Each structure stands twice: as C-alpha cells, then as structure tokens.
Amino acid sequence: MTTTSAVSRGCRGTTTTGRRTRVVRDVVVGGGGDARWRRRTRAASERFGEGAENPARGLKAPSTPESPRGQQLAYILKTAPDMFDAAVDSQLDALMNEVEQERDAEGTQSEAKKEQLVLFKRIADVRALERRNGLEDIMYTSIIQKFLAAGVDMLPPLDETTMLKGIDLNRLTDGVHSKEALEMVREHLMAVLGGAGENAYSSQLVRMSKLQAAQVYAASIMFGYFVTRADKRFQLDRTMGTLPLDPLESAKALERLFNSASAMDSMDEADAAPINFGGDDFDLFSDSSSSDKPESKLTLKQYIQNFDQATLAQTARIVSMEGVAVAERQTGALFGSIEDLQREMQDAVGMNAVTPEELMQAVSEVVAEKKVQTLTLAYASQRRLVLEAVAFGAFLRSSETYIDDYAPKLLTPTPRGPTGPPGNSLPSGDDDDDGGSPVRG
After folding, report:
1. To which H or E segment does residue 209 belong?
2. Would you say 311 and 233 are in contact if contact means Cβ atoms under 8 Å apart?
3. Can you give the pLDDT at residue 322?
4. Which residues are within 8 A (CB) of 404 and not within 5 positions of it... i.e. 6 or more apart?
C-alpha cells in the first residue's frame, strides 16, 4: 500500500491523520466533520439517488461499479485518490459492522419474531446480496486503482471496430510481478502468442474469433492469480531457508559425495577418515540448521514443478466467490458473454468436424468468413491483452488478500466439489502457505 496506509491502519482518533480519516468517512458514509466535505457528500448522495451519471463511468475501465459503495469509492478515486486506501478501509469497517449488527439482532429475536422466520430470512438474504455486490465493487475499484497507479489505462470493451493506442507494456509488468515471477509471465506470453509474442511492436494485424480472445484473457487472469499465490509461497520459503534444492544442484552434490566415498574405500586410511566426511556436499543432505546451508538457486518454475497434484490444484484456484465474480465480470465486460460466444461458434462450425485438425480448420474458415464475432488486433495489442490479464489476476489476488486480512470472514469461500467454478473448490483447512485460512494463501 502507499503512504496513505498509515491513514487506514493507525491514525484513527489522532491529530492530523485522524482528521483525514474522519474526512474520508464523511465522504464515504456521511457524518460530522468538516462542513465543506459534508456538502460534497450530500451532493454526491443526491446525484446517486437521482439516477444521474454514475461517477465510476469516468474511470478508464470496461466495467462500472454499480453498488452505492462502489460508486462512492469511484468518486473518491476520481476526486481524492490519495484518500482511496482509507476510504476502502472505511467501507470494509461498515460492512463488518452490518454483519455484527445482524448477528446481534438474530440473538435477541423474540419468539414472536422467530415465527416470521421466512420473512426475516428473505430480508437477510437481500442484505447479504447487497453486501456481496458491494464487496465485489470494492475489489474491482481497488484493481482499477492499481492500474491507475501503474500509469496504465485498462482496455475498453472490444469489438471489430475498436482501435487500441500503444502503451508502454513495461508498466504492466514492472512492480507488478517479482523478478522470479516475470520469467514465468514471459514464458506464458510466448506460449499463448507463439512467435507473435516476439513481435511486440509489430503493426501486422491478425484476425481471431472473439471467443478465442476471451478464452485467452480468462486463462491469463487465472495464470496471474496462480503465479501470485505461488510466488508468495516461494518468497516465504526462501526467507525461511526452507526452499528445496535445485535438482541439478542435488545431482551434482550426490555425485561428488559418492565419488568421495569411492576414493575413501580405495585407500587404506579408513580408520583415519576426516570427521566432516563429504565436506559441504554432505551438509546439503544433513538435518543441520537451514541457516548453515547454502542458499538454494531454485527458480520459481522449478519450485512449482515440485508441487504435488493437490498443492498445484489448490494454488491454481480462486478461493473466494467474490474473486470468481470479479474475474468473470472483467472478461464479460471486455468480450461479452462467453456462453453466447460458445453457442455462436458451435452453430457456425456445426457437428461435422471429427478430429482436432478438422475442428481447427472449420474454426479458421468461419473466422475468415466472419460467420462469428471477430477481433482484428496487431501483435502488440495481443501482447497487451495478455499482459493486462496477467496483471489483473495478480491485482485480484492482492485485493482479495488485503480484504481477508483486514476484515476476516467477509469473503465467501468457493464451495467444495463440482458445484463451484471449474477448478475452484474450497481449499482445505491445512493450507500451509498462510496459516490455514480458507481464503488466504
């Protein structure tokens, strides 16, 4: 977080910073304090209530926060961006207070009120939905703020006539990912775009189906989310000195150790063997303190390759329903409904294709003939599309983690088993990368 995090955490009730927090709360939830800010708050509330233009529409993002909380945060982001972090904290405090008040009210219900259980349940469900929509907007505006801080405009809704301006693509990577994660992002870019990934500034245009672009974008969001979670585990293990050895390092050390043992066997000095048999190579495989061992040169990619299937699946899933909704919302805002695009493609291709090669040929033909919705993008724009999606996934995980740390149990864990989004079931309680929280890690 920026320096304004001091406002959000430790300045309530203090002198200058305490006044700043009170000012933010005047804007966000209304209340006493500076008269000028109260007037701005009332004016903003009146605009919201009268159905005037949503202040979030001025933000350069494909989707618009529609809940009152989202609109108010968008207003803060536009008019007083340095106060945004404190405003987020105030909104989270308000949500937590609502939850606590509901729990207190449930505990004091009389028997007469309990007879109206169905009505109260419906009211509670409506309020819970409003809170969830507000929480999703808090996450989404936080992601917008991170793109603005990076100096990058998010992509607008895309169609065949959209013209994208060139940007500095380094802003979508520098400061967004660690040095180790950047290597994996580069590999992902090359894997998605193939040879096109090397032509970052090529103006050559390529036509593709809108469905294909949407699937690439959605997969890249998931990749960015996954890499951020895995990198957190990696950095923690490295700090604790518990990283496993590079497989090549291990093999070379074992070879040297065995060669040393063979040399000892060939000599008549077995009874005079040195105490530290094998030297430093033996220490690599001993139970000595991790601080005495040489630092592992394991890369993030090699670290991930050591994951078992359960750990890999656990790290690759979005762990809150709000996070899933925000990812789907972003993809839908850019490309439209993926389900509709899939039906359109199926109707155009038909059922005649039998082999994968025939299917790819049929897809190429319907794209060339414009029988489905298409996009025409330069290679540089394709690269921007992928890098933005990866950054979006990283920012999504960052926002999700912050909310869970600040206001535990506000986020809704994804359900277990096949009822949840594909590959996004609830993690087990022994998530060892962050203390077993169902949302953290």
Report:
1. strand 205-209
2. no
3. 95
4. 320, 410, 411, 437, 439, 440
Domain interval for residue 350: 169-241+311-419
Separation of alpha carbons 385 and 180, rounded Å: 21
Bridge partner residues of 413 (DSSP):
320
CA 418 to the chain's CA centroid: 22
Q: How far apart are CA 281 and CA 256, in angstroms?
A: 7
- Tell me what percent of the chain is helix, strand and coil, each rounded to the nearest 5: 65, 5, 30
Contact 390, 223 (CB under 8 A): yes
The whole-angstrom distance between residue 163's C-alpha and the CA centroid of its chain comes to 27
**Same domain for 323 and 205:** yes
Same domain (yes/no): 251, 140: no
- Does residue 223 share a domain with residue 346? yes
DSSP label of 174:
B
Q: Quote the CA–CA distance of 117 and 101 in Å, as a whole number.
A: 18
pLDDT digit string, tens, across residues 215-249: 999 999 999 999 999 999 999 988 888 887 665 55
Q: Using CB atoms within 10 A of its CB, is residue 185 exposed (0-12), middle (13-18) or buried (19+)? A: buried
Phi, psi angles (nearest 5°) of residue 141: -65, -30
Q: In this predicted model, what pLDDT tens digit does every residue of 285-327 receive, in sequence order?
A: 444 444 445 556 789 999 999 898 988 998 999 999 999 999 9
C-alpha gyration radius of the chain: 27
Measured CA to CA, the distance from residue 185 to residue 8 in angstroms comes to 32
- Whether 28 and 137 map to the same domain: the answer is yes
Is 115 found in the same domain as 10?
yes
Contact 91, 73 (CB under 8 A): yes
- Give the whole-angstrom CA distance, residue 354 versus residue 38: 67
* 319 plus 293 within the same structural domain: no
- Phi, psi angles (nearest 5°) of residue 200: -60, -30
pLDDT digits (tens, 9 = 90+) for 14-27: 333 443 444 444 44
- Do 180 and 299 meet the contact criterion of CB atoms below 8 Å apart? yes
